[in-house]
Amino acid sequence: MEKKKYQWVKDMAKGGLPFCLIAFLPFINSCSKSEKEYDATGTFEATETIVSAEQNGKLLTFTISEGDSIRTGQEVGLIDTTQIGLKIKQAAATKQVYLSQRPEMDKQIAATRQQLAKAQTEQRRYQELVADGAAPRKMLDDATNQVKVLKRQLDAQISTLSTQLSTINSQLSAVDVEVSQLRDQLQKCHIKAPQDGTVLEKYVEQGEFVTVGKPLFKMADVSQMYIRAYVTSAQLQAVKVGQTVKVFADYGNQQRNAYDGRVTWISNRSEFTPKTIQTDDERADMVYAVKILIKNDGYVKMGMYGEVKF
Question: Are the beta carbons of 292 and 263 closer than 8 angstroms?
Answer without folding.
Answer: yes
